[in-house]
What we know:
The protein has two domains: 8-45, no CATH class; 61-161, Fumarate reductase/succinate dehydrogenase, transmembrane subunit (3 helical TM bundles of succinate and fumarate reductases). It is built from seven helices and no strands. The protein is mainly alpha-helical. The protein has helices spanning 8-11, 28-36, 39-45, 61-88, 93-102, 106-132, 139-161.
Amino acid sequence: MLRAATSQHALLRPLVSAGARSMTVISSKSAEDYKKQNYTERQDRLNRPVSPHVMIYAFPVVALSSITVRVTGVLLSFGCTGIGAVSLFGGDPSLLMASIGESSLAVPAKFCVAFPLSYHFIGGVRHAYWDATPDAVTNEQVEKASYAVLGGSLLVTAAACMM
């Protein structure tokens, strides 16, 4: 059986200087300095580009739609947890909902329930369709489907708010 070399030099991996075509080993003092640098300093030293920050990156419509489906799912989970907590601590959720429905907060409350529910549901139907027909997943169709999910959920939400 072959044994790996265990000398100190065999365990050290050489660091390549930026722009060099051949490998240049940096001294152990430089290697220690390299390890003390933060990530950005190390990338600058190696002339590597840094990805843009999330706040300046322009997300495609499809990414925004996917994020919104996930966020609406989390919001629905919080809502169901809140209703469960009210029930658990002796409250009456149906009485609470009726009192909100009769107040001036009725339309905003309906929107806060109907939009996440419809968006998440229609987004789920979209994904089920994509799972059943993978040939329909093209860049153009995916973008159209993202707009359709938004439009459909806004229509359903508007109808629910008018009831």
